[in-house]
Amino acid sequence: MDRHAYELARALKMAPRRIAVVGAGWAGLAAAVELVQAGAEVTLFEMAQQAGGRARDLSPSASCGREALEASLDNGQHICIGAYVETLRMMRMVGVAEADAFVRRPLMLVDAEGVGLRLGRGAPRPAFALAVLRRRGWRWNDRLALLRAAASWSRRGFRCDASTTVAVLCASLPLAVRREFIDPLCIAALNTPAETASGCVFLRVLHDALTSGAGSADLLLPRLTLGALFPAPALRWLASRGADVRLGRRVEHIHARLDGWSVDGQPFAAVVLAASASEAARLAASHAPQWVARAAALRYEPIVTIYATSAGCRLPEAMIALDADAERPVQFVFDRGQLGGSPGLLALVASGASGWLERGSRVTEHAAISQANAALVRHLREPLRAVRTIVEKRATFACTTGLDRPPMRVAPGLFAAGDYVAGPYPATLEGAVRSGIAAAGAALA
Questions:
Q1: Which residue, 217, 238, 265, sits at the end of a domain?
Q2: 292-325: string of b/e by CB count within 10 Å (b at 16+)?
Q3: Tens digit of pLDDT for each residue in 361-372?
Q4: Structural domain of residue 120, as residue ranges?
Q5: Do residues 114 and 203 share a domain?
Q6: In whole angstroms, what is the distance from residue 20 CA to residue 32 CA?
Q7: Which of 94, 96, 147, 394 could form a disulfide with 300 if both were Cys (CB 3.0 to 4.6 A apart)?
Q8: What's the pTM?
């Protein structure tokens, strides 16, 4: 038994044993796995017929009649980094080996010509400094300015004033550094434009990537669909250990009891609300109005993923960055053929895409295909054709300055889990998993 399970098992001796988890996204699954590992009796409710929440795979038959795909598509593109230690621990616990699940590569942020930042292996700080010094396309003043800024952030413990945006934090950096490094890194990590994104959270992401030991900054690109990465193995693991898993079951109401809570009339000692913020707010409305108000005040940023094909296409890297602006929506392209998907299948990702969705999803799709055909022309034997466009309107909360995220504790014996719950991380898989683990510990203790 690992350290986490041992600590929870100790807590379980003094804690209630019958616990409900509402929601089977990554946070809810992490909470359920942690609770079952500690010996609790868990009932897991999920309103959808499929687990995974906003990080799940889709049926290949749902390709809107445009084209049948050999492999399942995902509802978006999610990457991990080596510093996601709790996500990797959870995956190991349910039987998923990292080598089978991911392509691990040193951090890189390169364009279609292979120009950009490439970290080497080893300790991330010296690897980052060396990568900046070797970065083609920047003047020496550009490179030195970024290294000086990084050193300054490190001396301050990767902290800044809570009101500081990423744009203000990096205002002194040369335009090329901001456009080609800061802006794409910010949108990838926070899904919020640098002009409004929280500098504090941005620095926390840099801190974990650069200070958590060798490999912490590595990119972990999924070679499995998102469902196979964790949700499906977690459901099998839970079922094999006696958990009561109820997919397609929406919880209608919860009520406080003298000895705990009832969920649709069934008694539980504690409840973990691991549904979306809006669904958790609905269930908690009569129990914690202040918590509900904070959850309702969250604002969201969308992500648009356009799947497109070009026969024989293979990009120089599995993930490349594109220049995005008012006429070009896509910041990143993933070569799914290099990641276990159909050869020639690309995923074009437009993050923080609220402005584009105001123009319409078809306009966004057309602009994305035109942008990718122009940027990737050297790697295409034939023009890209759109297969399917997926819009996640509430993909992540807007990670802005001064954000007041709701706390984990909703009421006595009632706890919230999700990437939106107060914590140091943006809306990432690691943030969701850590939140679920923390809620499980609170429910036990």
A1: 217
A2: bebbeebebbbbbbbbbbbeebebebbbbbbebe
A3: 999 999 999 999
A4: 107-217
A5: yes
A6: 9
A7: 394
A8: 0.91
